[in-house]
Design brief:
- Helices cover about 45% and strands about 5% of the residues.
- With about 450 residues, it is mainly α.
- It has a five-stranded parallel beta sheet, sandwiched between helices.
- Helix 3 packs parallel to helix 4 (about 105-115).
């Protein structure tokens, strides 16, 4: 009898265009396994919103597998120890998995490979991170030359269909998903996420189809918070419910600025992974010495006001409330809210990065860290510190009135001009924590002191 083969799943929760499943299916009976490993990534445990998504994505994948006569095995603990134990129980000799680039997963892969026959495959990115290098043989540190070089590697391989899976003669025991307590109980803060999102491979495919109907307007619509102009694909891509190659080829017949803008964003995702492949602690430390020397404020009250959407700046507050309610925030507003925390409130970008890590359903170690460092001016490819986004003018420029009415109902009765910067504030809505001009002068002074100090 052929020995079974383990498929080790992490952020690759799909059957179609999944190289680990395809390779395992050709090698023998397949045992799909997800290990909830909070030990390997102790300082980067999944945040609450990510755990909510994970629960439903695992349930969806298990349902898809059962339609094929298979099932998903759930275990909890250190990945290398759990997989070694499972291999001994089942008689499996091989483990197949998609390659991951977060430093804890790279450590886990090395540990698994020491005791098992581990086969790693590519498939979560358009171009395998770490393989695209400059002419001098070094990693790209700036996006634009990376993007130009990446375009020469296209197209990605055609996506493959879900394979047929042979099942083992005897299934190993599995944890019950509900016993993992991934969902909130009291209080149940996930109502908005349930209303906004449906995790899983089939919903991801539907989201791609929906985006194809709107991609022609994407170049303009993506910047307007008041309309549904975003792709809404980021959590599905993050959790691997759809491959980027599948999205790329779905866009293949699309022309125009909208499709081109989204292809560029897919490559920004690749670029972020390339940075952590080269600099594993990128989201943990800055690379700009002057920004690193800034004397950050330690205001707990200001940080909590930002978290709760109580800053007195309507566009910022709308974004932070959307984040808490739905586990997601419009991308333009993410930049505005991040810039406000860093440069208006002078609070360390690392605090904001950690809050997003806990509250985003698409919280990605690479993308989240790279994006925060871009806004703060502390990264290798970053905006200059002196670029201080003005929330009030940004709100008006990108027509955020409807967005503010939705998420800051205290202001819903105000007109389109007054709502961005209310002169007369309804009862219960706070005054600004700091004026924009005052905040800008303080931020520039702090940067000057850091540069000369």
């Amino acid at each position: 009898m052929t020995a079974p083969v383990i498929v080790w799943l992490r952020r690759d929760l799909r059957l179609a265009d999944q190289a680990a499943f395809a390779a395992a299916a050709s090698a023998g009976p397949v045992i799909p396994v997800y290990v909830l490993d909070d030990e390997t990534a102790q300082h980067r445990k999944l945040g609450g919103a990510s755990r909510w998504w994970l629960h439903h994505s695992l349930a969806s994948l298990d349902g898809d597998l059962r339609k094929l006569g298979s099932r998903l095995i759930l275990r909890r603990g250190k990945s290398d120890e759990i997989l070694a134990s499972l291999a001994e129980e089942s008689g499996a000799r091989q483990v197949h998995a998609l390659r991951h680039y977060e430093p804890w997963w790279r450590n886990a892969e090395r540990a698994v490979g020491k005791s098992l026959d581990l086969h790693l495959h590519d498939g979560n990115y358009l171009i395998p991170p770490g393989t695209l290098l400059t002419g001098g043989g070094t990693p790209y540190k700036i996006f634009t030359p990376f993007y130009r070089a990446a375009l020469g590697q296209l197209p990605p391989p055609q996506p493959t269909a879900a394979p047929k899976l042979e099942t083992p003669g005897k299934w190993p025991k599995s944890d019950k998903l509900d016993d993992w307590d991934l969902l909130p109980t009291k209080p149940d803060w996930a109502g908005g996420m349930r209303d906004d999102w449906t995790p899983g491979e089939a919903p991801a495919a539907e989201a791609v189809d929906d985006f194809l109907d709107r991609v022609g307007e994407y170049e303009i619509a993506r910047n307007l918070p008041s309309i549904d102009g975003s792709s809404r694909l980021s959590p599905h891509l993050h959790w691997g419910e759809v491959s980027p190659a599948t999205v790329w080829h779905a866009l293949n017949e699309q022309r125009g600025e909208g499709a081109e803008s989204f292809r560029r964003e897919l490559f920004w995702r690749d670029f972020a992974q390339n940075l952590i492949a080269a600099f594993p602690d990128y989201p943990e430390r800055g690379f700009n010495e002057a920004v690193g020397r800034i004397e950050w404020r330690k205001s707990k009250s200001d940080f909590e006001a930002w978290q709760q959407g109580r800053t007195g700046y309507p566009i910022v507050d709308a974004g932070m409330r959307q984040l808490w309610a739905t586990g997601w925030m419009h991308n333009r507003v993410r930049m505005i809210a991040a810039s406000f925390l860093i440069k208006h409130l002078l609070i360390d970008w690392k605090q904001g990065e950690r809050w997003f890590w806990d509250t985003l359903v698409d919280a990605d170690y690479a993308s989240n860290g790279v994006n925060w460092q871009w806004v703060s001016g502390s990264g290798l490819d970053a905006s200059m510190w002196v670029r201080i986004m003005a929330p009030l003018s940004q709100s008006a420029k990108f027509d955020a009135a409807g967005y503010i009415r939705q998420w800051v109902p205290e202001l819903a009765q105000l007109g389109d001009e007054a709502i961005h910067d209310p002169v007369f504030r309804p009862r219960g809505y706070p005054d600004p924590l700091i004026g924009h001009r005052e905040a800008r002068e303080r931020a520039l002074a702090a940067h000057r002191a850091a540069r000369t100090g």
